[in-house]
């Protein structure tokens, strides 16, 4: 079986390969961990992400003004998370029982997963740039407003373009009496090149932009007299650190694997090590947690979404005038308070 480090491979490094008897017992025990741990995590991520992003979708469609750029970009980010999330039950079954859904489903679900993954990165970067303009360049942001619908359509087309090869080159393969859903690029393109493109465009670029923008925003916040300055600093810290925790281990893993594919490091010995398999499982699972990150930050960190959550659960009952007054107070958030034009929402 061809070694594969892509986002959806369950057992690319031969956890269940043939070993001598003493080693076989150890590998079977580790194999159980490598199977059960992702299955449990994928199931947990699915329920948390589905609940959180569904609530965000409801709040944006029913309670928010989608004519605002920040709300519309958040809507697209939420849709990206949901596209990614709906594939998780299939991967949970995959890592425990192998691929049982055929090659068409393998191609379709891989395409959906990478579309959700790529679009998440792009819309998160777009939201960051929008907030940066509203906070650091408030005057310019109030006079120049890009066509957000055209921008969003362009980002979806861009991400779909990169997702189609992942779908086309996905196939099922049988190995050691088990069926796998893998990406097999064959002679069409070097596998390591795919990883370098993914790392550079869908990690290094967004991470650099996010880090730069939020660092500048942090200094801008520190210079202003704000009642919610500490809250804004905490939100910025959580956004940058959370992004790094979710995606840095996985992309470091891909980079090491790409070096192995090029023969720059001893790939065969490395891939057969327990540490490498353990690193793959943990980094792979952490990357999947990204779809929980956005709803948690926006619901727990933003006053207006907490207000929507209280309303949807029936915790409070307001008259129309009381509700309007309360929501207007809640929507005066940390970062939007910096923008004199009131365009930024977290």
UniProtKB/TrEMBL annotation:
Span-the-membrane segments of this chain are: 32-61, 73-96, 108-129, 150-169, 193-214, 235-265, 285-303
May I have one GO cellular component term?
A: external side of plasma membrane
Q: Name one Pfam family in it.
A: 7tm_1
Annotated GO MF terms: C-C chemokine binding; C-C chemokine receptor activity
Q: Which UniProt keywords apply?
A: G-protein coupled receptor, Membrane, Receptor, Transducer, Transmembrane, Transmembrane helix
Q: Which InterPro entries match?
A: CCR1-9-like, GPCR_Rhodpsn, GPCR_Rhodpsn_7TM
Q: Where is the signal peptide?
A: none
The G-protein coupled receptors family 1 profile domain covers 52-298
Instruction: Name where it's found.
Output: Membrane
Q: Which CDD domains match?
A: 7tmA_Chemokine_R (cd14984)
**How does the protein's chain sit in the membrane according to the entry?**
Multi-pass membrane protein
Q: What is its main location?
A: membrane
GO BP field: calcium-mediated signaling; cell chemotaxis; immune response; positive regulation of cytosolic calcium ion concentration
The protein here is known as Chemokine XC receptor 1-like
Name the species this protein comes from: Clupea harengus
Q: Which gene encodes it?
A: LOC105906953
